[in-house]
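hi! just following up on the protien thing from before. the input was this:
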Amino acid sequence: MNSHAVATRRSLYLAKNDKIRIRVKCKGVVSKPSTGVDSGGPSTRSRAKCKGKDVIANKGTCPWAVQISRANENQDWLVKTVQDEHKCLQTREVKACTSRYVANLIVQQIQSNPKIPVKALHEELCKKLEVGMSLQKVARAKSMAERIISGDYQVQYGFLRDYVLELLNTNPGTTVRIDVYPETSLSVTTRTFRRIYVCLGALKLGFKSGLRDFLGLDGTFMKGPYPGQVLTAVGLDSNNGIYPGIISAMEKVFPSAEHRFCLRHIQENMKKQWKGKDLSDQLWECGRATTVNHFNRAMDELKKINAEAHAWVSKIPANTWAKSHFSGRAHTDCLLNNLCEVFNSKLDEGRDKPIITCLEYIREYLMKRLCVVQKEIDKCEGLLTPTATTLFEKIKADASKYVAKYNGAGKYQVLQLWVLGDYRFPM
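and the predicted 3d structure came back as:
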């Protein structure tokens, strides 16, 4: 009935509504022609009382009506009466077009385009339905549609333990821990959620098989009514790509683990007080330093540009944000930092969803990523990964420029060849 009211732009009401009978009528008014002698002059309208409402004498009600009924609650509904003809005028004020009705109407649209602005959605609905509705009603409808899609935020915390049991049952080897706030009163039967730890069994086995003991830990903030953080750990696969989904409490398990600051975040924080392209470029020059001397020279240049910014940056330990920690692990450290940022960017669509929906979004993304990587593996030829093959070919090309010369006592000296035309001379 609501769909018919919105489609025909009429105001319907329930004249009868119980468990066995429903009768719907139209509120529209049909104007009758005046029966006065002087039809050209103004007509006098008399009013009569009918059930406490004023009824204009020269106007009648719309004949449209539908009645359905059933003998008892166990039987199906049957249409008894249909007068499917409106004689009243259409209206843009349709009460059946409620926020709940609009929410059910736009669920699929919000699911495919969750970031559509409320104003754009309002204009689209007004053109499509041709009924009047306020911007606030559309905003409420969008919020309802998002709750239908993602589930209610508070309700999902109540189903969290059931979700964990299902996760353990369908993913062998998975480790899950739920932590709650302690409750002093034993009479309280509920607990307040604090955090959850998830490590999928398949990813755990894959990380052990890869035997690359590098982990990059990073976090991203959740959105919605219950703010928090999603902490993720990223490893390196055999192709120097992202091996995601390893979640670990680094501060507790590895108290001596190195902590790093993201240079881009340092720059964004610095820009709140000190702006300027020269200052930002010099900060990145400090971050790209691979030796202590290079770093000190870059910091001196930063001080010349802005002494206050230099003092602020100096409070951050250099070995926690400079590119290489001034060691040979520069490439790996920088690579892990980048991979952490890339992985967190992939979780952006799940940060504003309720807890279970957010966890499922991450799990499904990991599943799809593993399938994509497996397809690339199936295309490879040989025993090495594409990145390893490229590096090995470069090493072979560089090795052709060297020669080993025996220098006695079972030892050899590696000499670099000097190429001149078609001749090679050891240097």
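The mean pLDDT is 81.
The first helix runs from residue 2 to 8.
cheers
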